[in-house]
Amino acid sequence: MRGLDHHRIAAFVVGLLMCALSTSSFAQGLVSRYVEGEHYQAIEAPVATPDDDRIHVVEFFLYSCPHCYHLEPEVEAWREQLGDDVAFSRVPVLFGNGGQKYARLYYAAQRLGVLDEVHADIFRAIHEQGRRLLSQSDMRAFMVDHGVDGKRFDAAFDSDAVREKVAAAGEMMRAFNVTATPSLGVAGQYWISGRSAGSNEAMFDVADYLIRRQREE
């Protein structure tokens, strides 16, 4: 009887060890399921981020990009669930159809304090209403429709401050080696594209993984 009890105890201990090993393997699988160089890229020279103890995430986008337009609601939903320790921002890319001018439109709206009100409407104007907004006069008319004085818009659009913002956007693009939109930069160190992640929607999962890693570090 005692021998049987010893066998049962030994079997129980072995079972616990196997369970622990299985759990450990599963955890390691979760940790390593996104692979550098495959699902995301580590950039060569990390980009300086504000010293505010927050993890900075950047969306690189283009107003004329249909993929950016279709993903925008999901970007907003994901942005809403990011923790207080994560800072989200957007950078308009300068390549593609109208990239330079769209970047100036974005930063002019930001300078005028109306970006949150017009951002989604710019997408809709281009992709739903057929208003390409490729000229400054078309952009001015759009902004006037949204309650912005035309002269104030022209002043902002042509300002040195907006030109400096556009130049900084170009530097950020080059630092992250951005070649596609939409895409994400995380913590000044990693770049994620829809192609590397597997889909545009999957970029959020990869970004969440990298954000968790930053928190642990």
Automatic annotation (TrEMBL):
<protein>
    <recommendedName>
        <fullName>Thiol:disulfide interchange protein</fullName>
    </recommendedName>
</protein>
<dbReference type="InterPro" id="IPR050824">
    <property type="entry name" value="Thiol_disulfide_DsbA"/>
</dbReference>
<keyword id="KW-1015">Disulfide bond</keyword>
<feature type="domain" description="Thioredoxin">
    <location>
        <begin position="21"/>
        <end position="171"/>
    </location>
</feature>
<comment type="similarity">
    <text>Belongs to the thioredoxin family. DsbA subfamily.</text>
</comment>
<keyword id="KW-0676">Redox-active center</keyword>
<dbReference type="InterPro" id="IPR001853">
    <property type="entry name" value="DSBA-like_thioredoxin_dom"/>
</dbReference>
<keyword id="KW-0732">Signal</keyword>
<dbReference type="InterPro" id="IPR023205">
    <property type="entry name" value="DsbA/DsbL"/>
</dbReference>
<dbReference type="GO" id="GO:0016491">
    <property type="term" value="F:oxidoreductase activity"/>
</dbReference>
<dbReference type="GO" id="GO:0042597">
    <property type="term" value="C:periplasmic space"/>
</dbReference>
<feature type="signal peptide">
    <location>
        <begin position="1"/>
        <end position="27"/>
    </location>
</feature>
<dbReference type="Pfam" id="PF01323">
    <property type="entry name" value="DSBA"/>
</dbReference>
<keyword id="KW-0574">Periplasm</keyword>
<dbReference type="InterPro" id="IPR013766">
    <property type="entry name" value="Thioredoxin_domain"/>
</dbReference>
<dbReference type="InterPro" id="IPR036249">
    <property type="entry name" value="Thioredoxin-like_sf"/>
</dbReference>
<feature type="disulfide bond" description="Redox-active">
    <location>
        <begin position="65"/>
        <end position="68"/>
    </location>
</feature>
